[in-house]
Amino acid sequence: MSTIPSITLNNGSRIPQLGFGVWQVSDDGAEAAVRTAIEAGYRSIDTAAIYENEAGTGRAVATAGVPREELYVTTKLWNSGTLDWSGAQGQDAVLRAFDDSLAKLGLDYVDLYLIHWPRPMHGTFGNVWKAFEKLAADGRAKAVGVSNFGTAQLDALRQESDLVPVLNQVELHPHFPQTELRAYHAEHGIATEAWSPLGQGKELLAEPALVKIAEKHGRTVAQVVLRWHLQSGVIAIPKSVTPSRIKENLDVAGFELDAEDMAAIAGSETGERLGPDPQGFDWN
Ligand code: NAD
Fold first, then answer.
1. Ligand 1 atom at minimum distance from 195 CA
2. Domains with residue ranges and CATH for the chain
3. CA 124, CA 142: separation in Å to the nearest integer?
């Protein structure tokens, strides 16, 4: 949508600053929600192999009536512990996983492909990243990035490859603003993308300080939080399956948070995550 700003990534490509996420949505549910989202004006969609809704997402992308080149599709490599990521075998496994995602989406390229989870206890991701380099070079992934990486993994990748991830998608909302990681990203030309940008619709949206700001602007707390992401230079990918909320979450262009609002929102930081700490969490 024209009113949604975009961010230029380190490979020169652009990503809408507000996208639509489909975690915990069934395959058919994703088809309906993504269609509603595209019709409402979203142009960026975030799915993942592990969400098991790439096919439904792809059906909506194919039938929503918007040219493919106007849409921005992100999916993610699920790095299951049962796969061997080392050596040439590991690279082949990544390329096969990518082919599988592309086939399910029914696309011949994605705009962004991410390593979903770092699993630092299993070593670095230099080898996996080599496969990502190939995908970026042949254009089947227009851009490549990571998710849930900390500074240690980002440092390790920088030592093994000249290809800097375009962005790192991490848990980020006013309760958990990731200030240090964002500073690292800024220093190294990596954009920050927020998952659970609305704090999963939980306590964050009932915060008295945020309710007050919402009342002041005649907006909802969800809109205030998304506006905070945009004004913070962060890319946000809120999720909803409710058509009215899908529209509400996109309607964040017509107002501006002032310095006082931004300071009050900063004051709501609790330092508490909703998801597991990726540095210590293994999936299997
Ligand atoms: P979110 O912060 O987007 O919250 C979504 C929930 O908030 C909804 O299910 C609904 O209950 C509520 N909500 C949405 N709009 C609302 C509104 N306007 N008013 C009131 N309540 C509202 O949480 P999320 O789904 O966890 O994160 C968004 C997306 O981020 C996901 O769908 C997924 O694409 C991505 N994600 C990625 C990772 C990762 O590891 N890379 C992890 C989690 C999520």
1. 30
2. 13-266 (3.20.20.100)
3. 23
What's the pLDDT at 41?
Answer: 97
List C-alpha distances in Å: 107 to 98, 111, 146, 268, 284.
11, 10, 21, 41, 30
Residue 79 tokens read as 């790095």
> Tell me, what's the pLDDT at 90?
81
Q: From the CA of 29, how far away is ligand 1's center (Å)? A: 15
Q: Which two tokens stand for residue 96?
A: 């096969």
- Whether 153 is in the pocket of ligand 1, judged by its Cβ within 6 Å, is no
- pTM of the shown model: 0.97
Does the annotation count 51 as an active-site position?
A: yes
Q: Is the CB of residue 248 below 6 angstroms from any atom belonging to ligand 1?
A: yes
Nearest Cα residue to atom 20 of ligand 1: 201
**Mean pLDDT taken over the chain:** 94
